[in-house]
Design brief:
about 850 residues, mainly beta, single chain, 49 strands, Immunoglobulin-like, 3 domains
């Protein structure tokens, strides 16, 4: 099903796509503000025997072009004077739409024009395909209905197949959930000098989300009918930034799942009868075609739409636009099921089409424009074990991935590159011939792009270099934005462009990282700086001033000594985000005139936390530098978790402890993932029969548990009794720690009694205690040393050991106990702190123990 260029004799052409006219065009004809106001708003209806035109401005959804060939391109618009009505405010009659194509933005030098009918059965959309155009040529286009004029769009035909091209520029985007954020990325994308743009899926979202930005979905429910899908597309396309991006250059689009329903597969939508879902899919496909610059030959036939296709641009690139949604087997959560050789994400016909096309290609770069990550993700934390899981990615379809990777390995001159969306993050992967063997041959490169707005603003996270479980991953980032690519015969360069926010209508854009892939050498190499930002994992929130600590930033020019000389100049490193009352002093230089290939610059600061902030602290490192005339800006964050001291203060009591209720309060506690873990007042009740005081611990510490570790700090204080400060595992088995004066004892529990004392420690200062859950067993650490273990705690999985993802019980009687073996209440206090970490390894425990 390829789109083919007309067969013409190749000749040498330079891709001089943009000029000074480009910027003038953006500023005048299709500037962001101009798009909403261009054209005549007072429209006279155009009527004849077979048509009826609108009496209000019909071009509210802008214009677009797409699917460029060397001699033609699709020109699109839809008449919708009332875009948020199911029929767009149009009558049930066809309307003549005049169009013209010119070589000048003034629209005076017209090369083709004509009239097409906007028909109600097509949502009053038009898909014009002027033919016989010159290859590799810039054109401008405009539509007319009566006296109303549309905005002016700019497009370009593809170079002839085989034509010599020195440079080709394109960008790709995905995932633009309307309620989740403003389309600031599209605003900046429209200003780029590009030949082409790709949308890789999730153009709309079908759900009912409203969010808090005043961009709630219309209609305010999950869309399922043709009328509802039309309204949803119209809402998205009413965004002036998206209109600007569509008008600036031609687009090639493909879909993912949210254009129909979340995580649907082929004709499967969980919980929906197949016949009902096929009807919904037909409506969704119809609305998709009506709102995209796709050729009429791709018009859907009921629930089927032939979307995968191929585009060639001279001798420099061939793009295979895939459909990984319409023909797939249902995704699975089973790693074993994912290995089934019969499972497919492409379908047999599309897979054969793809491999045949790749095998016959003469292009320098061969691109897979597709939806979900191809690279494997190892879900097993053990570096010696591999579990690629499954889910909504190629991990779930191992046979198709193996076939593709083997084909790449057998064709070393292919220069394969995958461009991918879906996952709302920027990632760079080296595609391996065998992901179970990280040392296997690198056969291709995958550049994964983040979302335009989906997931909104999230905590920024950026990392470079190989990862333990995914050594083929070169880069990870969670900003929003788009990806810009520049292709030459020798080099593919990918620039990750990120915006500062999507929660405000105005946002800056910067390049956070750039990578290159060399002709004949698959895999990615970083060309922009890598930055390592290190700070303590936590700070003391006890209410008293803490000791000062150091933070470090290392700025590295990653190019090796044998690489092309790339000098980074005017480097600055600046740290912000300190709470009020904290002070910081730079102890080294924080600027550098230049950093050459393979060199690093390290800056250090000393921080004194002179006050106690409320909650965790996020430090931000901002770096600036220049490469030639280009300015780069990177942001990195370091999270300092709050260490909350919970003081249990008890008055001496002569009351009979078997009948006396004691009340105590905890200081406002730490937060983990925005969940307060320690707060409020609790009552202590003595259970006289067992001679201990028990906390009814509903919610206490439970919300702070991580998937693998419970962690706390204790400070022994001389008392008149024995205090058990931690008890895990239930009444019949488990582990416990108790304090007698200044001695800590650890051991196993047997029917409420600490009967096996395996170790004792004399401690007079803060001591770190951690309980680690692994495969049904518990291990107890004191200051990083394993001191006690219980191989059988009676639970097989974390999820069976309380709420899913938690260790302990949110109210069980033994989650946190204070014992008095004398049967009397004790005086003094216990100070305890929880440190929260998603993966508190023994090594980290030891490091933390040395810090506190």
């Amino acid at each position: 099903m390829p789109e083919t260029n007309a067969e013409k004799k190749p000749d040498s052409q330079q891709n001089s796509f943009l000029s000074s006219n480009r910027r003038r065009f953006l500023q005048t004809a299709t500037g962001i503000t101009g798009l909403a106001t261009l054209g005549t708003t007072g429209v006279t209806a155009t009527n004849n025997d077979n048509s009826s035109g609108p009496d209000r401005y019909p071009f509210t959804l802008g214009v677009a072009s797409g699917d460029p060939l060397s001699d033609s391109v699709v020109l699109w618009t839809r008449l919708a004077p009332e875009p948020l009505e199911g029929d767009g405010g149009m009558s049930e009659k066809k309307v003549p739409v005049a169009w013209k194509l010119a070589t000048r933005e003034s629209m005076q030098q017209v090369v083709q024009d004509g009239t097409a009918y906007a028909r109600p059965e097509h949502g009053h959309s038009v898909h014009i395909v002027p033919e016989g155009l010159d290859p590799n040529t810039e054109y401008f286009y405009q539509f007319h209905v009566g006296d109303a004029k549309s905005p002016i769009g700019r497009t370009k035909t593809a170079p002839e197949s085989g034509a010599s091209i020195d440079e080709f520029n394109f960008a790709f985007v995905s995932c633009q959930n309307y309620p989740s954020g403003y389309y600031t990325s599209h605003q900046h994308l429209a200003e780029e000098e590009l030949d082409l743009a790709f949308h890789l899926g999730d153009y709309i979202y079908e759900g009912s989300a409203q969010k808090s930005l005043g961009r709630g979905h219309e209609p305010p429910r999950e869309v399922k009918t043709l009328s509802e899908y039309r309204i949803r597309y119209a809402q998205y396309k009413s965004d002036e930034n998206l209109q600007a991006a569509h008008a600036a250059f031609p687009w090639i689009v493909t879909w993912d799942d949210h254009e129909v329903a979340n995580n649907y597969a082929d004709e499967i939508d969980e919980g929906t009868p197949p016949e009902e879902f096929r009807e919904r899919r037909a409506d969704a496909y119809q609305a998709y075609w009506e709102h995209q610059p796709i050729r009429r030959s791709r018009m859907p036939d009921g629930p089927d739409m032939p979307l995968y296709r191929r585009f060639t641009f001279g001798d420099i690139a061939e793009f295979n636009v895939l459909d990984t949604r319409q023909y797939r087997d249902d995704q699975t959560s089973s790693s074993e099921e994912a290995k089934d050789p019969e499972r497919t994400i492409l379908g047999d016909e599309q897979e054969e089409w793809l491999l045949d096309g790749l095998g016959e290609s003469d292009s320098r770069w061969n691109v897979l424009a597709q939806q979900v990550p191809i690279a494997a993700t190892d879900n097993d934390p053990d570096p010696d074990e591999v579990d690629f899981g499954a889910g909504d990615k190629w991990d779930s379809y191992r046979a198709d991935r193996k076939t593709l990777l083997e084909f790449m390995a057998q064709h070393p001159t292919l220069n394969p590159v995958a461009i991918t969306g879906d996952v709302h993050r920027n990632t760079v992967y080296n595609l391996k011939a065998d992901f179970s063997d990280p040392d296997s041959q690198t056969v291709g490169t995958e550049y994964v792009g983040t979302s335009i707005s989906s997931s909104g603003d999230t905590a920024e996270q950026t990392s470079f270099g190989n990862h333990v479980n995914t050594p083929w991953e070169q880069f990870y980032n969670r900003n929003r934005g788009y990806v810009r690519c520049t292709l030459t015969p020798e080099l593919w360069q990918t620039d990750y462009r990120v915006v500062s926010t999507v929660e405000k209508p105005d946002a800056s854009v910067s390049t956070i990282a750039s990578f290159v892939t060399e002709d004949g050498n698959p895999g990615a190499k970083q060309t922009t700086a890598s930055v390592d930002f290190q700070a303590p994992d936590s700070y003391d929130a006890s209410g008293e001033a803490s000791d000062s600590f150091d933070i470090t930033a290392t700025f590295t020019n990653p190019a090796g000594p044998n690489a092309t000389e790339v000098t980074m100049e005017n480097v600055t490193l600046d740290v912000s985000g300190l709470p009020d009352g904290w002070s910081m002093t730079a102890t080294t230089e924080t600027t550098a005139d230049s950093v050459a290939n393979g060199e690093s610059v390290t800056a250090n600061w000393n921080v004194t936390p002179d006050s106690t902030p409320d909650g965790d602290v996020t430090l931000e490192l901002e770096t600036h530098y220049e490469i030639e005339s280009h300015r780069y800006r990177h942001l990195f964050h370091a999270e300092l978790s709050e260490i909350q001291i919970a003081q249990w203060n008890f008055e001496d009591s002569t009351e009979d402890s078997s009948s006396y209720n004691h009340a105590f309060s905890l200081e406002n506690g730490a937060a983990y993932d925005d969940t307060v873990a320690v707060e409020g007042e609790y009552s202590l009740q003595l259970d006289g029969s067992d001679d201990y005081i028990m906390i009814s611990s509903d919610g206490f510490l439970h919300d702070a548990f991580t998937e693998r570790t419970v962690s706390l700090w204790v400070k022994p204080v001389a008392t008149t009794g024995t205090q058990v400060v931690y008890n895990e595992g239930g009444s019949a088995n488990g582990l416990a720690v108790r304090i007698i004066d200044d001695t800590i004892e650890a051991g196993t529990i047997d029917d409420h009694n600490l009967v096996t004392i395996e170790s004792s420690f004399t401690k007079t200062s803060w001591t770190h205690i951690a309980v680690v859950f692994e495969s049904g067993s518990l291990t107890l650490y004191v200051d990083g040393d394993a001191v006690a273990s219980n191989p059988d705690v009676g639970y097989d999985t974390v999820s069976n050991h309380g709420d899913e993802g938690a260790i302990g019980r949110a109210g069980g009687s033994h989650s946190q106990d204070i014992w008095d073996t004398t049967g009397n209440y004790f005086e003094g206090h216990i100070d305890a702190t929880s440190i929260y970490s998603k993966a508190l390894s023994p090594e980290r425990i030891e490091r933390l123990a040395n810090e506190y």
